[in-house]
Design goal:
The protein is an alpha/beta fold. It has 14 helices and nine strands. Helix 2 runs antiparallel to helix 3. It catalyses: L-glutamyl-tRNA(Gln) + L-glutamine + ATP + H2O = L-glutaminyl-tRNA(Gln) + L-glutamate + ADP + phosphate + H(+).
Length: 465
């Protein structure tokens, strides 16, 4: 049951084949069984069961509130949640009952998050019950959200995406991760990092599921002045889609140093797949991409400093002995230049899309998931910046983007590719992503909950890079 899609489990709830209470209990048990992944900081077991009981009452009337009613989900711990602590995985906010800086989800105050694929891949011989194997990272910073969905602990998770923080772990954990158009989803309750780039992200196991969640959450919110009116969308994505009129752009600048042979092979494979199906595939140029990492980090540091000033150690957090009195001296000089470069990066995307390109196809990450032992040997900030090379330009332009799992690498770990769309064309983006997902037939994670549920897992043929 835990391996079903949101659409499938929602139908099972409506037909009475499973109750919301039973489903929630299964998820809680799975969280306990996979506690060594360290995906969760706080598990609201009592509250979840109470809400499940209320969902069952609604289901008994035959009038559930919507497609997600009764479906258990997870939330990244930087969303303020009523009567539940929100820590941002930091010592500073351990007691905040309602910060984060991205990396590979390895540096949190509550310990690193482990990638379920390090235990479940059919190409690896590690035991599910052995938490001390040579494990791999999830990517970050929404790594806990991704691990929860990949490990079948929940059917969807909300993350946050400032420079790739949902797409990066989505790719490394074999999941679909959507970064919507800036303003399409409310940021109310999301602890701000970089206001001009932050968006809530959606992590699911299929494109259809991501579309269902987007449809529920999108639109104006009077508590967030940056939200925009959602365009009209159909009830669900089309199962059949003719891509012969599409133009797929391949940015030449995304052939970045460090791109692994496995990732390059999947990028080339997907481009050929589109072309063979009748789409026009052409190389395009985003010339200011090479400056995007530096630009992003200047803007990020400036806005983070402004946002985090509220956590000054008076009411929350702790006092630091580090002298930061000179940090703001050059903010104006560098901030203005970075803003100018950000506009040029955004104009590059506009130029390409105005030329007739429908979506851009790129890698999501440089490679599959790194071994934790290798990751911590490097400078984490530098490594994280490198991993964001394909994702953070999208945030600076406010565009929608989605990562779709494509195949397993030679190491038996997931590789994802990114599709980038035009502003407010999230539904078109997901329609194309769904077509791509259908063609690729990515193997479902072999992460069975128990022997009684193995027959309910959808079988797929593993595809190696």
């Amino acid at each position: 049951m835990l391996g079903l899609s949101i659409k499938e489990v929602s139908q099972a709830l409506k037909e009475g084949r499973v109750s919301a209470t039973e489903l929630t209990r299964k998820c809680i048990n799975q969280i306990k069984k996979t506690s060594y992944l360290n995906a969760f900081i706080t598990v609201t077991e009592e509250s979840a069961m109470e809400q499940a009981q209320r969902a069952d009452k609604r289901l008994c009337t035959g009038k559930p509130l919507g497609p997600l009613d009764g479906v258990p989900f997870s939330v990244k711990d930087n969303f303020c949640t009523e009567y539940v602590r929100t820590t941002c995985a930091s010592n500073m906010l351990k007691a905040f009952p309602l910060f984060w800086v991205r990396a590979g989800s390895t540096d949190g105050a509550f310990g690193p998050v482990r990638n379920p694929w390090g235990y479940a891949s059919p190409y690896r011989e590690q035991s599910l019950e052995d938490p001390d194997v040579d494990w791999v990272i999830t990517g970050g910073s929404s790594g806990g959200s991704a691990a929860a969905v990949a490990a079948l602990c929940s059917f969807l998770a909300l993350g946050s995406d400032t420079g790739g923080s949902t797409r990066n772990p989505g790719s490394l954990c074999g999941l679909v991760a959507l970064k919507p158009t800036y303003g399409l989803l409310s940021r109310h309750g999301l602890i701000p990092l970089v206001n001009s780039m932050d968006v809530p992200g959606i992590i699911t196991r299929s494109v259809h599921d991501a579309a269902a969640v987007l449809r529920v959450l999108q639109g104006r919110d009077k508590k967030d002045s940056t939200t925009i009116q959602a365009p009209d969308t159909p009830p669900s994505l089309p199962e059949l889609f003719d891509i012969r009129d599409l133009c797929i752009g391949i940015p030449k600048e995304y052939h970045a140093p460090g791109l692994s042979p496995d990732s390059l092979a999947q990028w080339s494979r997907a481009a050929a797949m589109f072309e063979q199906a009748g789409a026009r595939v052409q190389e395009v140029s985003l010339p200011h991409t090479r400056y995007s990492i530096v630009c992003y980090h200047v803007l990020c540091c400036c806005e983070v400093a402004s946002n985090m000033a509220r956590f000054d150690g008076l009411e929350y957090g702790h006092r630091s002995a580090v002298d930061t009195s000179t940090d703001a001296i050059n903010y104006e000089h560098y901030f203005k230049k970075a803003q100018q470069m950000r506009r040029l990066i955004s104009e590059d995307f506009k130029t390409v899309f105005n030329s007739g390109v429908d979506v851009l196809l790129t890698p999501t990450t440089l490679s599959d998931a790194a071994r934790f032992a290798d990751f911590i040997q490097e400078d984490n900030r530098t490594r994280s910046a490198q991993e964001d090379v394909f994702t953070q330009p999208v945030n600076m332009a406010g565009l929608p983007a989605v990562t779709v799992p494509t195949a397993l690498s030679s190491r038996g770990l997931p590789i994802g590719l990114q599709l980038i769309g035009q502003t407010l064309q999230d539904w078109k983006l997901l329609t194309i992503a769904h077509w791509m997902e259908q063609q690729l037939n990515f193997p479902m994670i072999n992460f069975h909950t128990d022997s009684n549920e193995r027959g309910e897992q959808r079988e797929r043929t593993p595809t190696a890079a």
